[in-house]
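Pasting as-is:
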Amino acid sequence: MPKVNVYLPDALAEAVKDTGVPVSAVCQHALELAVRRMTAIREIVSAGPDVDAAALPDSMLVSLTPRAHAVLTDAQQRAHAGGSAEIGTEHMLAGMIAEGRNLALRVLGTLDIEPSQMQRELARRARAGRPARSTAEGTAQSTAEGPAAEAALPPFGAQGAAALELAVSESTGLGNNYIGCEHLLLGLVAEPDGAAGQVLRGLGAELRITRRAVAAALAGYLHLSAQGNAAAAGDSAALAAALDRRLQPIVARLEQLEQRFGGAAQAG
């Protein structure tokens, strides 16, 4: 049987040794679930966001939240309406902004990144990358493509697919059993070549600090839900305000640490 090395922090390694946790069995189970989730998300990438989830093997292991599904569906529609041959990360980010009420936008807000900033950057990149085409050329292409092209919805491109796979990895790393907009955000930031990641990182959403902000937001959400207060009961405005209050000092501290260690690394 092939052997895979697993590296643990010293404290965790000692705790595992002391408690006698069956490392091999635990790792095999966790890796099996991770592989199934990645396989399922690749099926979604191949078939499109509106694929029948019930038809996918082990699809329950990669459950998209309604908001995340809405974002991906919107991204596909945007790509189609814009004449794009594939769903890019820019369409995914635009869909996330358009959805308007997801945790990803709340996290970005704590990093002082507003939807209007992202929209401006996406629009600027679209203008810069749009090839010039005459009206005659456009009419000829539309005529040649015909009704069949109207019905064809674009698939995920390489960068969009990579972002989705990274979202699965981020969800697994955070110990979540679903894919939400916050995981899609991390996937977009982590994907190195797509327009969305370049926009987000350019506005200050570096992966480490964004991941920590997402983890803090999820922890705060669970805490508020456990309290059973009005925000967790369905008052979205109260929940957003409460999450902001909890996230702001955490993010401020993270920024201080990033600046300190970043400065030390440059000095070294």
